[in-house]
């Protein structure tokens, strides 16, 4: 039972769920599986769980974190099915094992294409000109490509974000210098939008409001480091090339 609860929590935490949601889901599974109360303590890098009245505690580490809200929703659905006694604990465990192996990500080409369209659309929303739309889409696409493959190769998320924002800033300066674009600031803002940590910031605030101070501050620091890496990459471009 503990192994099943920890697997559910790990999948949710790796997929970008809030800490209070992770703890609540794990405790609900434990409550439905036994008459004793589950005791859970979750952080962005590890989850501890035990059963009330027992001395044994199990730990599950969280090596990587990404954004995959579909997996979060599927784990919630499975936990509700188990709480309603529609599936057994063994069926829940096997379903979670299968879900953990399932990547359930959009193809890389679709992620890259979406990043370009998002960059151009948000550039317009932030007050940019339609003249810069195509340039911003191309720059956002190239920036996301650099981020994706740098993260795969370097295994350091913040360094990949720095390199990506640096390339975005450099390309924006190039585009404006050769009169292929008009507004440098708006092009850069649109280009870096796919890198902005919107979900981590939202989760950090929600965890803090829910009383999970340690997890909320950890998530907030992660979002702050990501924002800093993006800002430093752009600042280097302005310092030496703009």
TrEMBL record:
UniProt signal peptide: none
InterPro entries on file: ThrE-like_N, ThrE_Dicarb/AminoAcid_Exp
UniProt-listed Pfam families: ThrE
Domain Threonine/serine exporter-like N-terminal span(s) in chain numbering: 4-240
Segments traversing the membrane: 108-127, 133-150, 162-181, 221-241
Membrane-related topology note: Multi-pass membrane protein
Primary residence: membrane
UniProt keyword annotations, A-Z: Cell membrane, Membrane, Transmembrane, Transmembrane helix
UniProt KW Membrane keyword: yes
Localization per record: Cell membrane
Assigned protein family: Belongs to the ThrE exporter (TC 2.A.79) family.
Protein name: Threonine/serine exporter-like N-terminal domain-containing protein
Organism phylogeny: Bacteria, Bacillati, Bacillota, Bacilli, Bacillales
């Amino acid at each position: 039972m503990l192994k099943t609860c920890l697997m559910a929590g790990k999948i949710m935490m790796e997929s970008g769920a809030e800490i209070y949601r992770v703890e609540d889901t794990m405790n609900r599974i434990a409550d439905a599986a036994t008459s004793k109360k589950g005791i859970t303590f979750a952080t962005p890098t590890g989850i501890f769980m035990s059963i009330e009245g027992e001395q044994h505690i199990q730990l599950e580490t969280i090596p990587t974190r990404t954004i995959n809200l579909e997996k979060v929703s599927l784990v919630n659905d499975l936990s509700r099915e188990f709480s309603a006694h529609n599936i057994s604990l063994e069926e829940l465990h096997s379903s979670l094992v299968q879900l953990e192996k399932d990547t359930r990500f959009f193809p890389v080409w679709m992620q890259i294409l979406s990043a370009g369209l998002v960059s151009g659309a948000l550039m317009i929303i932030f007050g940019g000109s339609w003249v810069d739309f195509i340039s911003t889409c191309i720059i956002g696409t190239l920036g996301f490509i650099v981020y994706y493959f740098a993260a795969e190769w370097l295994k350091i998320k913040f360094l990949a974000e720095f390199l990506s924002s640096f390339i975005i800033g450099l390309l924006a300066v190039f585009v404006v210098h050769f009169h292929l674009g008009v507004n440098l600031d708006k092009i850069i803002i649109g280009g870096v939008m796919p890198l902005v940590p919107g979900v981590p910031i939202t989760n950090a605030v929600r965890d803090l409001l829910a009383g999970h101070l340690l997890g909320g501050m950890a998530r907030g620091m992660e979002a702050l480091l990501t924002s800093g890496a993006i800002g430093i990459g752009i600042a280097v471009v302005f310092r030496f090339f703009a």
